[in-house]
Amino acid sequence: MPGLDGWEIAARVHQTDSTCPVIILTGLAEIDDREASGRPGVAGLLLKPCSTEDLVRVIASVTTPGPAMGHYEITRHQPKAGRHLSMNVLVTGGMGNLGSRLAARLVERGDRVTVLDLRPRPLEDSPALHRCRLLTADIADLAALQPVLEGGSFDSIFHLAAMLSSDSEQDSERAWRVNLEGTRHILQAAAAHDIARVIFASSTASFGPGLPPLVGVDSPQWPASLYGATKVAGERLGVYFYHRFGLDFRGLRIPAVVAPRGAGGGATAFCSEIFAHAVHHGRYEFYVEPHAARPLIYIDDAVRALLDLHDAPEDNLTRRVYQLAGTPATAREMAAAVLERLPGVTFSYRPEPVRNAIVLSLPLHFDDSHAARDWNWAQRYNLGAMTERMLHELQEDAP
Length: 399
Fold this sequence. Notes:
The chain contains 13 helices and 18 strands. The chain is an alpha/beta fold and about 400 residues long. The protein has 2 domains: about 10-75, no CATH class; about 90-395, Rossmann fold, CATH 3.40.50.720. The strands form 5 sheets. A 7-stranded parallel beta sheet has the order 7-6-5-8-9-11-15, sandwiched between helices. The protein starts with 8 loop residues before the first strand and ends with a helix. The model is unreliable at about 1-50 and about 60-85 (pLDDT under 50).
């Protein structure tokens, strides 16, 4: 039975008749002894990290000796629809805007989560996040990263750690090490330590100017920012590891994320800042022109998309990298959505050359039909819904 070493499995042994037992290997906690209790011919066993030799001994101990003992049917059992099997997960950048919320959601659904980040505190704290194992390490430092990945026994990695666009332009050397070398370290470690799956948070900023009105998933990627260039390189490197080493790499190009306590350091930070400033200060000055526009996605939708892509059956996937369309909106349209609900807020515009130029260079409309077809993706929050949710959450938190 090759290829089973290191699996966390449960084994169900069923003596179907007088011929051969059927051994069904399932994910950890799919069955337990209680499930097998009282059912003739069925034994349920829960095994921790299990070698092939251990499995052979277990099979020998629970099956009835006889002529059929030399023949076993070994199959990989798919869990019932809607039933989640607990995983051991690493989230890089897990203290950030998206990572802290993703880590909390993973914990809430029953996964064992390790958060890796340089930040001492999360951007979005929660009781669930306190149930994570927190580790401090720099993904650009291979010597510091190796012990984490060697001893983690991770099933999956959500690789979110990155320097954002504005910060990358200000410190290009550091951005190169974190965004590119850090991604290479994660992929190498995953392949070396039999980590089954890596979910890579890419960006619609991986595209540049001069594209058709609707950007397809395979449209040329010539970004105008270093951040975008590192995301393109990360996608290509992940696909290489898929073909060369069999790593289950899945990339997702995410639009501008709107969140109550969004991260700074990106050219699209205004997409979250507008709401916080409107609630807390009654005014906001955009650093982009009124017609500057980005596709927006509310944080809950972004977290759900990452989980849905991770959980999608491999047979459903037709590609390694997907993208989300988001809800296109200009700065002026975002301001109008806020004013419908908070009429007293004032807005002004003072374009800042670097960030304004990055935003203007980016395409606006993206085709996400592959995600819809392959793993049933559908965005839930439009501009009005995310504005309502943002203002409500921020007003609740206001002193």
